[in-house]
Amino acid sequence: MANSDPDKLISKADKLTKLSFTRWSADWKSATVLYEQAAIAYRLKKDYEKAKEAFEKASKGQEMISSPWDAAKHMESAGALAKEIGHWNEVIDLYRKASELYIECGRSQPASDALAKGACALEDVAPDDAVKLYNDACEILEEDGKEQMTFDLYRAAAAIYVKLEKYTDAASVLLRLALAANKCNAVHSQCKAYLSAVIVYLFANDFQQASKCYNDCSQIETFLNSDQSRCATKLLSAYEDGDAEEIKRVGQSSTISNLDHVIIRLARKLPTGDLKDIKIESSREEEPLDENDLT
Questions:
Q1: Which 8-state DSSP code applies to residue 253?
Q2: What CATH number is given for 1-17+26-144 in this structure?
Q3: Could you state, in chain order, the average pLDDT of each consecutive group of 10 residues for the chain (295 residues)?
Q4: What is the torsion angle, in degrees rounded to the nearest 10, for the CA atoms of residue 151, residue 157, residue 158 and residue 161?
Q5: CATH 1.25.40.10 residue ranges in the chain?
Q6: Which CATH architecture has domain 180-278?
Q7: What does residue 186 show for φ and ψ, rounded to 5 degrees?
Q8: Residues 38, 44, 50: CA angle, nearest 5 degrees
């Protein structure tokens, strides 16, 4: 069959699935084999559009013969080909369909992986869609108690938000990563995520939110006693003192060097705003109340 014309294979397969006066039932099993052979032949010829369509038909065939696992595999192949030809909306649809088919098999990890592959394909061309897929991929794993497998997905989503300069969203994703890490006792990952969130807020020149984030995270004892907490304290203190040199020194520390590259780059660019404003704000907060203020 290797030398067969894929167009003829598709034509033959289509006939096997159509009912007529002479064909009372569709032969999906035979048709699916032909669709698969055609898909591979098209892909070898680099006719990606036809290969994609053939894999979609092969996927439907596997569904019809009650084999959702193989159907999902073919749908992923179709998604990869949609990426090759730049059909970005189809990339989303095909990988989502693959994910649903894996869920039918009761397999959360490949279901999540399918969405992550779609997200990776879309990062540069449709970053908002990519983030949505990464978040959905995380939810699938968390629903199955597999928080440990979400870490890289959350990091990828945070990196996209940083690139888009959506710093509040980036920090929120990092806090979700910390929560996932907490659920599976991954203390080191949890503490790194908290420090990363503080750095993101500082880079966005939002000292108040960075302080609030730090104070909230410090309710958790494992973070309070960590190197990451000590590093965050030094950063925030240096901001309050208006000490740009100290901020830069902390930015070069080994604790920060162990964070993700995206966060390291942000930390090494600190401070980004005017430290005088922060110093004035901090001194106001520390001023004792005058008796007249209480009346």
A1: S
A2: 1.25.40.10
A3: 80 92 84 98 97 98 98 98 97 98 97 98 97 98 97 98 97 97 96 98 96 96 96 96 96 97 97 77 51 42
A4: 180
A5: 1-17+26-144, 180-278
A6: Alpha Horseshoe (1.25)
A7: -90, 75
A8: 50
